[in-house]
Specification:
By secondary structure, the chain is an alpha/beta fold. It contains 4 helices and 8 strands, in the order E-E-E-H-H-H-E-E-E-H-E-E. Strands 1, 5, 6, 7 and 8 form a 5-stranded mixed beta sheet that branches. Strands 2-4-3 form a 3-stranded mixed beta sheet.
Length: 162
Protein backbone atom coordinates (compact mmCIF):
# COMPACT_ATOMS: atom_id res chain seq x y z
CA UNK A 1 0.00 0.00 0.00
CA UNK A 2 1.35 3.43 -0.96
CA UNK A 3 2.13 6.05 1.66
CA UNK A 4 -0.36 8.90 1.93
CA UNK A 5 0.67 12.12 0.20
CA UNK A 6 2.03 14.74 2.61
CA UNK A 7 0.56 18.22 2.60
CA UNK A 8 2.75 20.66 0.68
CA UNK A 9 2.95 24.22 1.90
CA UNK A 10 2.16 26.97 -0.55
CA UNK A 11 2.33 30.74 -0.02
CA UNK A 12 0.47 31.85 -3.15
CA UNK A 13 -3.03 31.29 -4.45
CA UNK A 14 -3.54 32.35 -8.06
CA UNK A 15 -6.16 34.95 -8.94
CA UNK A 16 -6.48 33.54 -12.44
CA UNK A 17 -6.93 29.78 -12.60
CA UNK A 18 -7.48 29.09 -16.28
CA UNK A 19 -5.35 29.93 -19.32
CA UNK A 20 -6.20 29.09 -22.91
CA UNK A 21 -4.94 29.88 -26.39
CA UNK A 22 -6.42 33.13 -27.71
CA UNK A 23 -9.11 32.92 -30.35
CA UNK A 24 -10.05 29.28 -29.70
CA UNK A 25 -13.36 28.57 -27.94
CA UNK A 26 -12.80 26.74 -24.65
CA UNK A 27 -15.26 24.01 -25.61
CA UNK A 28 -12.96 22.99 -28.49
CA UNK A 29 -9.82 22.71 -26.36
CA UNK A 30 -8.26 19.84 -24.51
CA UNK A 31 -6.89 20.84 -21.15
CA UNK A 32 -4.31 19.95 -18.55
CA UNK A 33 -4.81 20.30 -14.80
CA UNK A 34 -1.94 21.88 -12.87
CA UNK A 35 -2.20 21.38 -9.10
CA UNK A 36 -1.72 24.30 -6.72
CA UNK A 37 1.52 22.76 -5.41
CA UNK A 38 2.84 22.31 -8.96
CA UNK A 39 2.20 26.01 -9.58
CA UNK A 40 3.98 26.83 -6.31
CA UNK A 41 7.00 24.77 -7.41
CA UNK A 42 7.21 26.73 -10.68
CA UNK A 43 6.79 30.02 -8.80
CA UNK A 44 9.56 29.26 -6.31
CA UNK A 45 12.06 27.84 -8.79
CA UNK A 46 11.41 29.77 -12.00
CA UNK A 47 9.92 33.08 -10.82
CA UNK A 48 11.68 33.54 -7.47
CA UNK A 49 14.86 31.90 -8.78
CA UNK A 50 15.50 29.89 -5.62
CA UNK A 51 17.71 26.82 -5.38
CA UNK A 52 15.85 23.51 -5.18
CA UNK A 53 16.92 22.95 -1.58
CA UNK A 54 15.34 26.23 -0.46
CA UNK A 55 12.22 25.57 -2.56
CA UNK A 56 11.82 22.18 -0.89
CA UNK A 57 12.30 23.70 2.57
CA UNK A 58 9.64 26.33 1.91
CA UNK A 59 7.18 23.69 0.74
CA UNK A 60 8.17 21.39 3.65
CA UNK A 61 8.98 18.47 1.35
CA UNK A 62 12.16 16.60 0.44
CA UNK A 63 14.35 17.69 -2.45
CA UNK A 64 13.52 14.57 -4.50
CA UNK A 65 9.80 15.19 -3.97
CA UNK A 66 10.23 18.83 -4.98
CA UNK A 67 12.06 17.70 -8.13
CA UNK A 68 9.20 15.34 -9.03
CA UNK A 69 6.56 18.04 -8.44
CA UNK A 70 8.52 20.58 -10.51
CA UNK A 71 9.15 18.09 -13.33
CA UNK A 72 5.46 17.19 -13.48
CA UNK A 73 4.48 20.88 -13.56
CA UNK A 74 6.94 21.77 -16.30
CA UNK A 75 5.86 18.78 -18.39
CA UNK A 76 2.20 19.84 -18.16
CA UNK A 77 2.94 23.47 -19.04
CA UNK A 78 5.14 22.42 -21.98
CA UNK A 79 2.41 20.05 -23.25
CA UNK A 80 -0.15 22.87 -23.09
CA UNK A 81 2.10 25.37 -24.88
CA UNK A 82 3.28 23.01 -27.61
CA UNK A 83 -0.08 21.35 -28.25
CA UNK A 84 -2.36 24.37 -27.78
CA UNK A 85 -4.16 23.11 -24.67
CA UNK A 86 -5.87 25.04 -21.90
CA UNK A 87 -4.29 25.01 -18.42
CA UNK A 88 -6.52 24.79 -15.34
CA UNK A 89 -5.02 25.35 -11.89
CA UNK A 90 -6.97 23.25 -9.42
CA UNK A 91 -6.75 20.75 -6.61
CA UNK A 92 -3.81 19.16 -4.90
CA UNK A 93 -2.58 18.37 -1.40
CA UNK A 94 -1.52 21.66 0.09
CA UNK A 95 -1.66 23.84 3.18
CA UNK A 96 -1.97 27.61 3.19
CA UNK A 97 -0.46 30.13 5.60
CA UNK A 98 -2.40 31.99 8.21
CA UNK A 99 -2.26 35.77 7.98
CA UNK A 100 -1.31 37.76 11.08
CA UNK A 101 -3.49 40.81 11.83
CA UNK A 102 -3.23 43.67 14.35
CA UNK A 103 -6.06 45.78 15.72
CA UNK A 104 -5.43 49.51 15.32
CA UNK A 105 -7.54 50.26 18.39
CA UNK A 106 -6.08 47.96 21.07
CA UNK A 107 -2.99 46.43 19.39
CA UNK A 108 -4.25 42.83 19.72
CA UNK A 109 -2.65 40.41 17.23
CA UNK A 110 -4.16 37.17 15.93
CA UNK A 111 -3.91 34.79 12.99
CA UNK A 112 -6.67 34.23 10.47
CA UNK A 113 -6.75 31.17 8.17
CA UNK A 114 -6.73 31.92 4.45
CA UNK A 115 -10.10 30.26 3.91
CA UNK A 116 -11.70 32.60 6.48
CA UNK A 117 -10.28 35.61 4.63
CA UNK A 118 -11.57 34.29 1.31
CA UNK A 119 -15.10 33.62 2.54
CA UNK A 120 -15.65 36.03 5.43
CA UNK A 121 -17.78 39.13 4.88
CA UNK A 122 -15.78 41.38 7.24
CA UNK A 123 -12.79 41.13 9.53
CA UNK A 124 -12.94 42.54 13.06
CA UNK A 125 -10.77 42.33 16.16
CA UNK A 126 -11.84 39.31 18.24
CA UNK A 127 -11.10 41.23 21.47
CA UNK A 128 -12.83 44.61 20.89
CA UNK A 129 -14.81 43.97 17.66
CA UNK A 130 -13.20 46.96 15.95
CA UNK A 131 -13.20 46.74 12.14
CA UNK A 132 -10.01 48.84 12.08
CA UNK A 133 -7.44 46.07 11.54
CA UNK A 134 -4.29 45.81 9.44
CA UNK A 135 -2.31 42.82 8.18
CA UNK A 136 1.11 42.36 9.79
CA UNK A 137 3.83 41.25 7.38
CA UNK A 138 7.05 40.27 9.13
CA UNK A 139 10.21 41.04 7.17
CA UNK A 140 11.16 38.31 4.72
CA UNK A 141 7.85 36.48 4.83
CA UNK A 142 5.60 35.91 1.88
CA UNK A 143 2.36 35.60 3.82
CA UNK A 144 2.79 36.62 7.41
CA UNK A 145 5.39 34.17 8.66
CA UNK A 146 4.75 31.04 10.68
CA UNK A 147 1.38 29.45 11.16
CA UNK A 148 -0.03 27.26 8.45
CA UNK A 149 -3.62 26.31 7.92
CA UNK A 150 -5.02 23.58 5.78
CA UNK A 151 -5.87 24.56 2.21
CA UNK A 152 -9.44 25.42 1.31
CA UNK A 153 -11.46 22.26 0.87
CA UNK A 154 -8.81 20.19 2.61
CA UNK A 155 -6.33 21.01 -0.12
CA UNK A 156 -8.74 20.07 -2.86
CA UNK A 157 -9.15 23.68 -3.94
CA UNK A 158 -11.04 24.34 -7.14
CA UNK A 159 -10.22 27.76 -8.50
CA UNK A 160 -12.72 29.96 -10.24
CA UNK A 161 -11.28 30.62 -13.69
CA UNK A 162 -11.56 33.93 -15.45
Amino acid sequence: MARPTKWRRVAFMPQVTCFKPAGVPARLLEGVALSVEELEAIRLKDVEGLQQEECAERMRISRPTFQRVLESARQKVADALINGKAVRIEGGNFALPRQLFRCRRDGHEWRVPFEALASGPRLACPRCDSPSVLPVRPAGSAFGGRGWGQGRGGGRWQGGGR
